[in-house]
Amino acid sequence: MVAAKEHFFMTPEEYLEREEKQPLKYEYMDGDVYAMSDNTLPHNTLALNIACALKNHLKGKGGKVLICGAKVQISERGPYHYPDVVISCDERDKKAFKFLQHPCLIIEVLSPST
């Protein structure tokens, strides 16, 4: 996804509270928020194909494979990202509800604009 920077500073707590009420997804880095733009169909197809291949590979091994809308918290103070594909095999992420905290693989599908 391509992100457009919003011009105001916020804490990680403010970001998490605000984002729950927003119709769009936002990434958070060092106090700045970035609105996520829509992906193209080829972008989504590639992300889905990668996720399906990885899910099949991990079948029966306990890994969690998520795509596009899954938020990842890199540390307690952020940043927060929405990667195209993310995998967590960590027990602490098995019951995660709002975001993963312990991914073992993050995949971003690049496009000419990125």
From TrEMBL:
It holds the Pfam family Uma2. InterPro entries: Nuclease_put_TT1808 (IPR012296), Restrct_endonuc-II-like (IPR011335), Uma2 (IPR008538). Residues 12-114 form the Putative restriction endonuclease domain. Coiled coil: none annotated. This is Putative restriction endonuclease domain-containing protein. It comes from Crocosphaera subtropica (strain ATCC 51142 / BH68).
